[in-house]
Amino acid sequence: MHTSPSLNGVIGRIAPRPVLLVASGAPDEAETNRVYRAHGGRSTELWELPEAAHTGGLRARPAEYERRVTAFLDHALGL
After folding, report:
1. Which of 28, 40, 48, 65 has the fewest CB atoms within 10 Å distance of its CB?
2. What does DSSP assign to residue 23?
3. Can you give the pTM of this predicted structure?
4. Could you give the C-alpha distances from 67 to 6, 24, 28, 29, 58, in angstroms and in order?
5. What is the structure's pLDDT at 37?
6. H-type helices in 1-79, by residue range?
């Protein structure tokens, strides 16, 4: 089984560019993303969806997902 590398070492270098983290209810995913959020600083936003499967935010809350992601991108791109 392949595991993804930790973002802890790179997320702080992304700042001050905006980052949107979307955490599902998968085991330990919310807590891991809270750590990433802390390492990312003020430009990093975390949205938690405890009822969603991993990468299932769009399926779990389609209208809210569209609204949040679009608003994040509009803001990040200065639109």
Report:
1. 28
2. E
3. 0.87
4. 28, 17, 26, 22, 11
5. 95
6. 8-14, 29-40, 57-60, 62-76
